[in-house]
Every structure is written in structure tokens, then in C-alpha cells.
Design a protein that fits this description.
Number of strands: 13
Structural class: alpha/beta
Order of helices and strands: HEEHEEEEHEHHHHHHEHEEHEHEHEHHHH
Bound molecules: guanosine-5'-triphosphate, magnesium ion
Length: 467
């Protein structure tokens, strides 16, 4: 009880945070939400004209500290509940974006009665006050963290409610089924007329099971666009791994020399390959009898190989493949890979064909990390190897559930399966209803209607401050 009371008190607090990232920029924003927002602004703000503050109107003026000292020239806006991000009274102060000014402003706002917001607390309030369901709240995080246009598109679609609407429709079908079962429980003698198991089962298939399966397929298809993949560049020393990294990144990221063993550590960066967020990792060239430091680098390279979703095995096309190249190829095992034959601008070695035949499952791309030739084909090979699709195929990546949502969808699907079986076996309606409820609970977790405070804390703590 005490904990619940404390929780309620916290939710009643007026909260404040710096909403813009640290560093200097054009504008910095302090955001305040809660019943005290307007009064706090009133204490600190001196509007240019002594007009009454009007909701949703930007007002120009100065922030002044309690001693009457001017702090910054600002624009302030007050948004009266419920037409605000959190559905509470919200104030935003746009100041010059100096970290010192923003810190000072925040300190004044806190001294005037606000509490420092926790990460994600504004969005959590929007959720608790019913403005966003949980799928939309999570879409806000996705929106902030998206690294590719496709990722952004998924986030925007979820923010517009694509998943919420689908889940709500499925829930409604289950609620209808449960209602029929409840009537049958209340009037046991008329059970036969009330329940038509065949009709219920057919409804269940069309309105619950099939749409759940479709959502899970979308999750599978879009998973890479949402979570991205790790691609590791592997090969003997001097085959041009670092040159390839630089070429893919279109910048001189890693040191390249003609000395074998140049790269000692793993070097990684981020790449957008046809909408896929790719973490690309260059590694130390792998060889026997390396000296101590190099050996440590090689061990790291091996570790990265284990973690990789896809390996680019680079060989030097001007040299006959060595036993080390062969051993590397074999070490890939069943992991997806692409054989990259580098230095295509030079005269090729004749023995390469035999080498390629050793690894018939590896797609082969000839490139020149020096001239950039073949780079497009390599990107295409990475894309199709990772997704199983050719790029440019019209695949809809909009409503892509995240890991948490996927798990609940699977739980709901399992529940619906048991429900169908119970209907088929003509179990008593109260037992059938239990399965309907189990599926409903899982779906409720997706939109945030069922679930625990812990779940909410986990989700909202992933936000940044001020959001
Ligand atoms: N002609 C030609 N030279 C290349 C190409 N790619 C790399 N090189 C040269 O090959 C040498 C080795 O390149 P790196 O990129 O440092 O090779 P690496 O595989 O990273 O080598 P380590 O870090 O030592 O394992 C350098 O002299 C590069 O200029 C290419 O496509 N064509
Ligand atoms: Mg290197």
C-alpha cells in the first residue's frame, strides 16, 4: 500500500528535464509536465508584453532568477491539458542552447517546485494517461534510435498504430468468443444451442490464428531492418580487408599499408546497406606464427567471427590460395558468408577456380578495394545473403513487432491453438474460456492493458532523458 501511495505521489509530481542533447546548438529546450507547470513558468518568465499566457501560443520574453537577474532570452509555450504530449499541463522553454544556460534554467525550474524527470517519464505519462498505447510508446524509442530510412518507416508505422490496430482487432474476436462461452457457462442446460464449436473454431482460425501468424511472419521478415546485423571481414594478412572496410564506408577509417599484420585490433563502424543497419568489423589478418600483439588481435578476430551474422572472407585474387585461406574457408562452417576476391584491378591468379569449388555454397564477388569496382555487387550479395531477398523487391516493412511483442504474439498464438483444440474436443465451456483468457492476457501485454510495473520500468528506462 505504501509503495502504491508513493508511486501515485510520483505520478502526481510536476517533472522537468532538458529535452535537447548536450552540447551547443541553435535552440535548447526545457520541458516541464504536471499540474504545477504553469505556475512554475509564471515564477520565472517575464513576457515581453505583460499579456496573459495563452495555451499553445509561443510567447517571447526573459527568464529571470528569484533575485531579479536575467538568465536568458527565450520563447515559452504553455500547453493546457489534455492537448499535450503527456495529456498534462506542459510547458516548454526554448532557450539558447548552451549547456550552462540549460543547466541553470533547469536548476531554477527544480527550485520552483518541479522534480527531475526520469528517462522516458514524459512518454510514460503519455501512456499512463491513455494518449499512447504501449506499442506506440515503444515506437517513440524506435523513432529516436532508427539508423536507416527503413527503420524509421517501421517506427512511424508503429507510431501511427499499425500494430495496435491489428492486435485490437484480434482481441475483439477473442472477446466475442469469450462472451459466447460465458453465456454458455451461465446457462449450462442450453449449452448445445449457444455454442456452435465448428463456427467458433472457424472464426478463431480466420480472425485470430491467421492474423497472429501473419504478424509473426512480418516480425521475421522485418527483423533485420529493426535489429540490424553484424558483418565481419576476415582473411589472411594483406589481402585488403582494411582497404575493403574503407571502401565500403567511403572514408579512410582504418590504416592500410603494404606490411602484413597492419591491423592489430578490431575496427568497427556503422553502414547502411540498402536499408539494413549493418555493424561492419575489420579484423587482424589471420596467420600462423604471429607475434604476441598480433596473436591477441587474431584471437579477437576469431571471437568476432563467432558473433557475426555474416562473414566476408577476403582472399587476394592475384595470389594462389594458401592452406591458410582454405582453413579460414572451412572455419566458416554453416555460417552465412560471401567469398570476396579482392584486387580485381590486377592480373588474377589462375588457381582460384579450384578454390572456389571447395566452397560451392559461398557466393563469390570479385572486387577492387582500390578502384571500388564490384562494390555494388558486394553490397547486393550481403543484402541477399542476409535477407534471402533480392534488393528492390517490394517487401512491406511497416508493422514489424519487436522482440517483446513477438514473444507475446507467440504466447497468444499458443493460447489460441489450445483454445481451438479445446473447442474441437468439446471441453466444457469454462475450460475453453480459460484458454481464451490466456490468449487475451498475452495480447493485453502488447498494448499495455495487462502487465506489471516492472515491464513498464524496463521499457521506459530505455528512453533518453527529456523524452
Ligand atoms: N592493387 C590493389 N591493391 C590493394 C587492393 N586492396 C588492398 N590493396 C593493397 O594491399 C595492401 C594491404 O592492404 P590492407 O587493406 O592493409 O590489407 P589487410 O588485409 O587489412 O592487411 P592486415 O591488416 O595486415 O591484415 C595495401 O598495400 C593496399 O594498398 C586492391 O583492390 N587492389
Ligand atoms: Mg588491415
Amino acid at each position: 500500500m505504501v509503495a502504491a501511495k508513493q508511486q501515485a505521489d510520483r505520478e502526481a509530481d510536476t517533472i522537468a528535464a532538458i529535452a535537447t542533447p548536450p552540447g551547443s546548438g541553435g535552440i535548447g529546450v526545457i520541458r516541464i509536465s504536471g499540474a504545477g507547470s504553469r505556475a512554475i513558468l509564471g515564477q520565472l518568465f517575464r513576457p515581453h508584453r505583460q499579456a496573459e499566457l495563452r495555451s499553445h501560443r509561443l510567447t517571447y520574453g526573459w527568464i529571470v532568477d528569484p533575485a531579479g537577474q536575467a538568465v536568458d532570452e527565450v520563447m515559452a509555450v504553455y500547453m493546457a491539458a489534455p492537448n499535450s504530449y503527456t495529456r498534462e499541463d506542459v510547458v516548454e522553454i526554448q532557450s539558447h542552447s548552451s549547456y550552462l544556460i540549460l543547466q541553470h534554467l533547469l536548476a531554477l525550474v527544480l527550485a520552483a517546485g518541479a522534480r527531475a524527470a526520469e528517462p522516458g517519464e514524459f512518454t510514460k505519462r503519455a501512456f499512463l494517461n491513455g494518449r499512447l498505447d504501449l506499442t506506440r510508446a515503444e515506437a517513440v524509442i524506435d523513432l529516436l534510435q532508427a539508423q536507416t530510412r527503413e527503420g524509421l518507416q517501421i517506427a512511424l508505422s508503429l507510431l501511427q498504430g499499425s500494430l495496435q490496430q491489428r492486435v485490437t482487432a484480434i482481441r475483439q474476436a477473442l472477446l466475442d468468443t469469450r462472451a459466447i462461452l460465458e453465456v454458455a457457462i451461465d446457462f449450462p442446460d442450453e449449452e448445445v444451442e449457444i455454442i456452435d464449436p465448428a463456427a467458433l473454431a472457424s472464426d478463431l482460425r480466420g480472425k485470430v490464428i491467421a492474423p497472429l501468424e501473419e504478424l509473426l511472419r512480418a516480425a521475421e521478415r522485418g527483423r533485420l531492418y529493426r535489429d540490424g546485423l553484424a558483418v565481419v571481414i576476415l582473411g589472411r594478412p594483406n589481402v585488403g580487408k582494411s582497404s575493403l572496410l574503407n571502401c565500403l564506408l567511403r572514408e579512410e577509417r582504418a590504416i592500410v599499408t603494404e606490411i602484413p599484420g597492419t591491423t592489430r585490433d578490431t575496427i568497427e563502424d556503422f553502414l547502411d546497406i540498402k536499408g539494413l543497419p549493418v555493424r561492419i568489423v575489420d579484423t587482424a589478418g589471420i596467420r600462423e606464427n604471429a607475434e604476441a600483439v598480433e596473436e591477441l588481435g587474431i584471437r579477437r578476430a576469431r571471437r568476432m567471427q563467432e558473433e557475426a551474422d555474416l562473414v566476408l572472407l577476403v582472399v587476394d585474387g592475384t595470389q594462389s590460395p594458401t592452406s591458410e585461406d582454405l582453413a579460414l574457408g572451412r572455419s566458416l562452417g554453416t555460417r552465412p558468408g560471401v567469398l570476396v576476391v579482392n584486387k580485381s584491378d590486377l592480373k588474377p591468379a589462375l588457381e582460384l577456380e579450384g578454390f572456389r569449388q571447395q566452397f560451392p555454397e559461398l557466393p563469390v564477388v570479385a572486387v577492387s578495394a582500390k578502384t571500388g569496382a564490384g562494390l555494388g555487387q558486394l553490397e547486393e550479395a550481403i543484402f541477399s545473403r542476409a535477407t534471402g531477398e533480392a534488393s528492390g523487391e517490394a517487401v512491406e516493412h511497416t508493422c514489424v513487432p519487436n522482440v517483446r511483442q513477438r514473444r507475446a504474439l507467440q504466447g497468444a498464438l499458443a493460447g489460441a491453438g489450445r483454445l481451438a483444440a479445446a473447442l474441437k474436443d468439446h471441453l466444457p465451456p469454462d475450460l475453453v474460456a480459460i484458454e481464451a483468457q490466456a490468449a487475451l492476457d498475452q495480447l493485453g501485454e502488447i498494448v499495455g492493458e495487462t502487465g506489471t510495473e516492472d515491464l513498464l520500468d524496463t521499457i521506459f528506462s530505455r528512453f533518453c532523458l527529456g523524452k
